[in-house]
TrEMBL record:
Lineage of the species this protein comes from: Bacteria, Bacillati, Actinomycetota, Actinomycetes, Streptosporangiales
InterPro entries attached to this UniProt entry: DUF3152
Superkingdom of origin: Bacteria
Name of this protein: DUF3152 domain-containing protein
Native organism: Nonomuraea soli
Pfam families named in the record: DUF3152 (PF11350)
Length: 189
């Protein structure tokens, strides 16, 4: 049975997100260790656009829990300085549009732009109809966009009723699949 991480609220507080904020990112200060285990550790940074109604530490904590979940891509260390493999940035719709070019996000989608997972703050606030659980949708969008940063391309629903691959464009449609926020949903949590 799929479940959100134990410390992920099922119904995060809803907030009003401005269409346009400052266009400038602030790196969330602090570091978080990777989960225990084997394998390489990926260094990453979390950024939040100035003027958004979110606390950077809360966003960074949810990103870190998602990336280091046993059902996730691997082991990640959050840092606030030095070299990183990728960044995860919470962005207003206007900044998302600019950051994601030449992709036309319509102020609605998130993207990977070559160095940064650009998470659209409106989608972060509202989710999508096909995900009844906003916390699970947030896990999906982080997993999906970071998946692009790790070199994974889009996939489609393998068969009706199956769990959607995390690299399926679940924000647009489930294509007959069920929602799934994880790259490895069968792994023990």
């Amino acid at each position: 049975m799929d479940r959100p991480a134990a410390d992920t609220p099922r119904k995060p507080a809803r907030v009003r997100v401005p269409y346009e904020a400052s266009g400038r990112y602030v790196t969330v200060r602090g570091e978080d260790a990777p989960r225990a285990g084997r394998g390489p550790v990926i260094r990453y940074r979390v950024e939040v656009e100035r003027g958004l109604p979110y606390r950077g530490q809360e966003f960074a904590a949810q990103v870190h829990r998602t990336l280091n979940d046993p059902r996730g891509w691997g082991r990640f260390r959050r840092v606030d300085s030095g070299p990183v493999r990728l960044s995860v940035a919470l962005s207003s719709p206007a900044t998302t549009n600019r950051q994601c070019l030449p992709l036309n996000t319509g102020g609605d989608l998130s993207c990977w732009n070559g160095s940064r997972s650009v998470i659209n703050a409106v989608r972060w606030a509202k989710g999508v109809p096909q995900y009844a659980d906003l916390g699970a949708y947030r896990q999906y969008v982080i997993s999906h966009e970071v998946g692009h940063g790790l070199g994974h391309g889009h996939r489609s629903c393998p068969r009706r009723g199956a769990k959607a691959p995390v690299m399926a464009q679940q924000s647009k449609s489930l294509g007959g699949c069920r929602p799934n926020p994880w790259p490895y949903p069968r792994s023990a949590a």
